[in-house]
């Protein structure tokens, strides 16, 4: 654990991070998991931040200031709070909460956002007194003053399928070269999807010792049964050994669920899979392995709706071509299906708001949105994107400030931190983010979501994912089934914990 109490001017700054620095220099401390620290660009703080691969936070301590810098997706969550004569900084909100002595108030708009999306935004929690270090940001503390600036790049778009593919391909090659140089085996969390198939091919290309791990839940959902069938078919097609680790939901102790709920409070979600799975992996293999996880590919490359279904196709039309006739049809179907009233965004401002406050991957505006809630989001986005002129850079940064702050990313980071396992998400890198801003072809994305993954698989590795034949799951492997994947550590537990916080003064 790293703990410091420093005086900046007349202000006391208390810093508490739950782990020792990943890298320490005389000028700064770096926490998290980074794969390429040796070759990072140190010409400036923003250049350094835009060259690192991994999730991290950097703390610079100078005589008259303390500077905090976050990774591009804000994966390494850091909270801060300013109270009289003191500033608190920690990756554990409980540390700050104890110092506040429960003198807290609810941020109504963030609470509404949390209820709708299962996570809070990139700057705040639903407790007014507890803020977040925003993604891709540099926060400077000077004598009781706090300023935050974003280092996210402002890039114009010049669509190019070739340049996009080349940039992503080169970045993934560089990532796996770095992993190879670590001379450590890897554990690939293998879902059987295109993303993990691509990562597997890179692991094989660089002859990195590995084990492919699949977490199988019991009871299993209908969707989960299809996932098991797919992952087995693909592993057999590739002739790779696949280790299935079964997680029995009914056997998870109550205290473990409460612990997960506490850690994921601002990101309520299905977290048992990664927490228990990563714990099982650590117990079985130790911490010398590097975990490879394909998380963030959907968020960065396709903004979400990448399934091969008719409704997903309409969602992509709404996302990229909201003024088209087919988008109007998609909106009509969405309203019929949900029995609600949504409207299509018209202006660029409305498009950003709709992307930030999307409904199940649908870039639409909720007709029942209150003026207070709308003003809160509008003001927030205006402040956060004020340094950007390009609509496409604003769009990606808005996605990072919203969906990429969500539980899927956070549970990967938090479960890895808890088990002290080094984890790399190869798609969550600045180069892949920026090349997508610059070169993305939206027309192709509509018809062929995540076309980059397909193209690299087929052209570089001669792997044709869509040609695979899935086998039926052996019913003997399924102890019991549930109708859907709605299990999320009992949502009521999250609300109970929230109410305990907000109602205890």
Oligomer: single chain
Instruction: Please give the CATH class of the domain at 161-299 and 448-491.
Output: Alpha Beta
User: Any idea what the shape is?
Assistant: globular
Largest sheet: 6 strands, antiparallel
Summed over residues and divided by their number, the pLDDT gives a mean of 90
CATH topology of the domain at 161-299 and 448-491: Rossmann fold
Strand content: 15-25%
> How much helix, percentage-wise, in residues?
40-55%
Counted by DSSP, the helix tally is: 19
Second CATH tier, the architecture of the domain at 161-299 and 448-491: 3-Layer(aba) Sandwich
Q: Briefly note the structural class of the backbone.
A: alpha/beta
Q: What is the strand arrangement across the widest sheet?
A: 3-4-5-6-10-11
What is the distance, rounded to the nearest whole angstrom, between the alpha carbons of the first and last residues?
29 Å
Count the strands?
A: 20
Protein name: Asparagine synthetase domain-containing protein
InterPro entries: Rossmann-like_a/b/a_fold (IPR014729)
Task: Tell me what you see in this structure.
The protein is α/β, with parallel strands linked by helices. Among the domains are: 2-151, 4-Layer Sandwich (Glutamine Phosphoribosylpyrophosphate, subunit 1, domain 1), CATH 3.60.20; 161-299 and 448-491, Rossmann fold. It contains 19 helices and 20 strands. The protein has a 6-stranded antiparallel sheet. It has a 5-stranded mixed sheet with strand order 1-2-8-7-9, covered by helices on one side. Strands 15-13-12-16-19 form a 5-stranded parallel sheet, sandwiched between helices. Strand 5 (54-61) and strand 6 form a beta hairpin. Helix 4 crosses helix 18, helix 12 packs across helix 13 (371-384) and helix 12 (348-356) packs parallel to helix 14. The longest helix is centred in the middle third of the chain and has 22 residues, at 161-182. The protein is globular and about 65 Å long. This is Asparagine synthetase domain-containing protein. InterPro entries: Rossmann-like_a/b/a_fold (IPR014729).
């Amino acid at each position: 654990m790293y703990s410091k109490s420093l005086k900046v001017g007349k202000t006391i700054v208390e810093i508490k991070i739950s782990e020792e620095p990943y890298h320490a220099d005389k000028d700064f401390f770096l926490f998290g998991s980074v794969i390429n620290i040796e070759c990072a660009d140190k010409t400036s703080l923003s250049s350094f931040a835009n060259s690192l691969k991994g999730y991290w936070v950097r703390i610079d301590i100078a005589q008259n200031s303390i500077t905090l810098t976050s990774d591009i997706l804000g994966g390494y969550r850091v909270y801060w709070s300013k109270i009289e004569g003191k500033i608190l900084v920690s990756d554990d909100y409980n540390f700050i909460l104890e110092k506040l002595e429960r003198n807290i108030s609810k941020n109504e708009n963030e609470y509404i956002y949390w209820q709708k999306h299962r996570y809070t935004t990139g700057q705040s929690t639903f407790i007014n007194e507890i803020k977040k270090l925003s993604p891709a940001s540099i926060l400077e503390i000077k004598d009781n003053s706090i300023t935050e600036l974003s280092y996210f790049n402002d890039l114009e778009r010049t669509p190019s399928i070739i340049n996009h593919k080349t940039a992503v391909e080169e970045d993934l090659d560089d990532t796996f070269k770095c992993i190879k140089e670590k001379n450590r085996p890897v554990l690939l969390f293998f879902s059987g999807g295109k993303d993990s198939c691509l990562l597997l091919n890179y692991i094989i290309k660089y002859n990195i010792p590995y084990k492919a791990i699949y977490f199988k839940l019991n009871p299993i959902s209908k969707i989960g049964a299809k996932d098991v069938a797919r992952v087995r078919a693909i592993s057999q097609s590739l002739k790779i050994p696949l280790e299935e680790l079964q997680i029995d939901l009914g056997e998870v102790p109550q205290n473990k669920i409460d612990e997960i709920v506490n850690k994921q409070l601002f990101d309520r979600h299905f977290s048992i899979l990664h927490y228990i799975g990563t714990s099982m992996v650590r117990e079985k293999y130790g911490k010398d392995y590097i975990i490879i996880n394909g998380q963030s590919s959907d968020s960065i490359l396709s903004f979400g709706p990448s399934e091969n279904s008719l409704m997903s196709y309409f969602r992509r039309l709404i996302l990229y071509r909201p003024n088209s006739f087919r988008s109007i049809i998609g909106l009509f179907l969405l309203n019929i299906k949900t029995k609600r009233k949504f409207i299509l965004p018209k202006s660029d401002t409305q498009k950003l708001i709709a992307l930030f406050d999307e409904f199940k991957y649908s870039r639409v505006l909720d007709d029942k949105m209150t003026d207070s809630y709308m003003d809160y989001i509008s003001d927030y986005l205006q402040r956060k994107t004020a340094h950007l002129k390009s609509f496409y850079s604003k769009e990606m940064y808005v996605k990072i400030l919203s969906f990429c702050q969500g539980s899927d990313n956070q549970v990967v980071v938090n479960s890895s931190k808890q088990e002290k396992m080094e984890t790399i998400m190869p798609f969550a890198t600045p180069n892949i983010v920026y090349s997508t801003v610059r070169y993305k072809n939206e027309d192709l994305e509509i018809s062929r979501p995540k076309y980059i993954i397909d193209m690299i698989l087929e052209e570089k590795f001669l792997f044709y994912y869509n040609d695979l034949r899935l086998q039926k799951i052996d019913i003997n492997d399924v102890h019991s089934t549930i109708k859907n994947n709605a299990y999320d550590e009992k949502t009521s537990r999250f609300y109970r914990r929230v109410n305990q916080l907000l109602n205890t003064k």
